[in-house]
Design goal:
It is a single chain. It contains 1 helix and 27 strands. It has about 300 residues and is mostly beta strands. The protein has a single domain, classed as Jelly Rolls, CATH 2.60.120.10. The strands form 6 sheets. The protein has an 8-stranded antiparallel beta sheet, with no helix packed on it. Strands 3-4-5-12-7-10-13 form a 7-stranded antiparallel beta sheet, with no helix packed on it. It is globular, with a radius of gyration of 19 Å. The two termini are about 20 Å apart. Belongs to the pirin family.
Length: about 300
């Protein structure tokens, strides 16, 4: 989706317990008619492992005849990971891919040296209105891969491992490996992404499964070592900590994200991520000029212009 580098999450506070380094509250943005809470990047925390962007999309209800409409736009140097809790998005890209993602499935688009794509509500879902709820993530590609060939992979919901952990906890491995189960999603940079549903009062020790980790509260409220955290918060965990996570006051949904530290800093501008700012300048020029590096997206007649700022 279209983004600007300076739209970084706006509120953060020190952690209230030793296990939490920082708590970030997302800033609301409108993207193609969809409200998102932007949790990463944040000025004081640009990445957690390979995760350089995290948007909590919705939940939003679209009126009959309307829907999500994000025209073709370009990416370099990253992989987009889309994961829905409700609704559907039709993905089209310059590789010729047309794929509809629904709850529990994963779309992983690898940009490499350049790809363009659009995201829209399906025509069949527009007449009666629809609801959309999910997350969209950007993962920085390692330096040896950021100028490689683009690609796309769709993974059906039933292909992701789902486990029962203790009492009242369901865990899905979206990317990476945990509790002996591995996701088929080949996310870059050693990304770890878990989707946890906890019944009221259910608790577990957060595994020290990656050098850098964060807990995103999607729905409900939780206690992290007894400190309250509500929906829309990202708790950045200290390295090596194993805090106790507990649902508080009802069903809670939390995503654990993380991985090894990036292999160097990244520059971000609009939809571009790169280890070398010169690569972003090249991409800006090529998108603005219509260079074949970013081929047209089939069945699309418009495209987002390069921002002027």
């Amino acid at each position: 989706m279209s983004r600007f580098e300076d739209e970084m999450a706006g509120e953060a506070a020190p952690g209230g317990c030793p296990a939490v380094e920082m708590v970030i509250r997302g800033r609301v943005r409108d993207i193609g008619g969809l409200n998102v809470a932007r949790l990463l990047p944040y000025a004081k925390r640009r990445a957690i492992g390979p995760f350089v962007f995290f948007d909590r999309m919705g939940p939003v209800g679209f009126a009959p005849g309307t829907g999500l409409d994000v025209p073709p736009h370009p990416h370099i140097g990253l992989a987009t990971l889309t994961y829905l809790f409700q609704g559907a998005i039709v993905h089209r890209d310059s590789l010729g891919t047309v794929a509809t993602i629904r709850p529990g499935a994963v779309n992983l688009m690898t940009a490499g040296h350049g790809v363009a794509h659009s995201e829209r509500t399906a025509p069949e879902d527009r007449p009666g209105g629809s609801v959309l709820d999910g997350v969209q993530i950007w993962l920085a590609q390692p330096k040896p891969e950021e100028q490689g060939a683009p690609g796309f992979a769709h993974h059906a919901a039933e292909d992701l491992p789902e486990l029962r952990i203790g009492t009242g906890i369901t865990l899905r491995v979206v990317a990476g490996e945990a509790y002996g189960a591995r996701s088929p999603v080949e996310a870059p940079g050693g990304a770890l992404c878990l989707d946890l549903a906890l019944e009221d009062g259910a608790a577990l020790e957060v595994p020290d499964a990656a050098p850098e980790r964060g807990l995103v509260v999607i729905d409900g409220a939780v206690l992290i070592d007894g400190e309250p955290h509500e929906a829309g918060m990202l708790a950045v965990l200290r390295a090596g900590s194993r805090p106790r996570l507990q649902a508080s006051g009802g069903l809670a949904r939390v995503m654990l994200i993380g991985g090894p530290p990036l292999d160097g800093p990244r520059s971000m501008w609009w939809n571009f991520v790169a280890s070398d700012p010169a690569l972003i300048e090249d991409a800006k020029r090529d998108w603005a000029s219509g260079d074949p590096r970013f081929p047209a997206v089939a069945e699309e007649s418009d495209r987002l212009p390069l921002p002027q700022y």
